[in-house]
């Protein structure tokens, strides 16, 4: 009777061990779930999409040597200004962009160009540029006695081509650019008001020597 009980226990233990091993093998050979594979694929796809957008943005921007675009913008008096006409009449043209008319930094920048205008105008046409309306530009010009036109680019068409959109939806990056004989010669994106004034003037005077 003792032997029979012991044999029964051994048989039961063996069966339990086999069941455990079988379950273990089942767990080991179980394929990865679809959920796990879905976690990595969107990440790779997102990275590719971001890289593509960066490349497209760079390709759509004007680079040094590119011709000024055939665009027409309104000035502070709501009058059309053809960029092509401006470039054809002036060997050098400097555009300085500011985020918002009549704000402190933009006022310093615009007034800096105003204070240096007598020297700049001997060599280049000067234009302020922002996404503000013609009315806001007019108020800015009048209040600060600005002697040059302020161009309104509410859709940020020219601003976008110049690479100065702050975000795809809104905003302007403080910058300046110089066109020589209708082609982009200097591109300075994201500068302080003081650097825009000092470097812009310096670059105009240097380029004037080569004309």
UniProtKB/TrEMBL annotation:
Q: Which Pfam families match?
A: AhpC-TSA
* Bias (Basic and acidic residues): 33-50
Q: Which InterPro entries match?
A: AhpC/TSA, Peroxiredoxin_BCP/PrxQ, Thioredoxin-like_sf, Thioredoxin_domain
Return the annotated region ranges for Disordered: 1-50
* SUPFAM superfamilies in the cross-refs: Thioredoxin-like
Q: Is Disulfide bond there in the keyword field?
A: yes
Question: So which domain of life are we looking at?
Answer: Eukaryota
> Which stretches are tagged as biased composition: Polar residues?
9-32
Instruction: State the UniProt keywords alphabetically.
Output: Antioxidant, Disulfide bond, Oxidoreductase, Peroxidase, Redox-active center
Q: List where the protein spans the membrane.
A: none
Q: What class of enzyme is it?
A: oxidoreductase
Write down the chemical reaction(s) this protein catalyses: a hydroperoxide + [thioredoxin]-dithiol = an alcohol + [thioredoxin]-disulfide + H2O
Q: What is its EC number?
A: 1.11.1.24
Cross-referenced PANTHER family, in alphabetical order? Answer: PEROXIREDOXIN DOT5, THIOREDOXIN-DEPENDENT PEROXIDE REDUCTASE
The text of the family note is: Belongs to the peroxiredoxin family. BCP/PrxQ subfamily.
Q: Would you tell me the protein name for this molecule?
A: thioredoxin-dependent peroxiredoxin
- Organism equals Kluyveromyces marxianus
Gene symbol here is DOT5
């Amino acid at each position: 009777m003792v032997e029979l009980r012991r044999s029964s226990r051994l048989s039961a233990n063996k069966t339990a061990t086999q069941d455990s091993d079988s379950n273990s093998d089942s767990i080991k050979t179980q394929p990865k779930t679809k959920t796990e594979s879905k976690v990595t694929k969107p990440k790779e796809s997102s990275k590719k999409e971001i890289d593509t957008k960066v490349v497209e943005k760079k390709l759509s921007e004007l680079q040094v040597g590119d011709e000024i675009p055939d665009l027409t913008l309104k000035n502070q008096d709501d009058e059309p200004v053809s960029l092509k006409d401006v470039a054809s009449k002036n060997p050098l043209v400097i555009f300085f962009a500011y985020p918002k008319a009549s704000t402190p930094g933009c006022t310093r920048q615009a007034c800096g160009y105003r204070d240096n205008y007598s020297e700049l105008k001997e060599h280049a046409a000067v234009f302020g540029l922002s996404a503000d309306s013609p009315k806001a530009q007019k108020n800015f010009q009048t209040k600060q006695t600005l002697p040059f036109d302020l161009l309104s680019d509410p859709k940020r068409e020219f601003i976008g081509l110049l690479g100065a959109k702050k975000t795809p939806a809104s905003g302007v990056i403080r910058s300046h650019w110089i066109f020589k004989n209708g082609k982009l010669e200097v591109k300075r994106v994201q500068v302080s008001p003081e650097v825009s004034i000092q470097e812009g003037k310096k670059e105009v005077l240097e380029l004037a020597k080569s004309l």
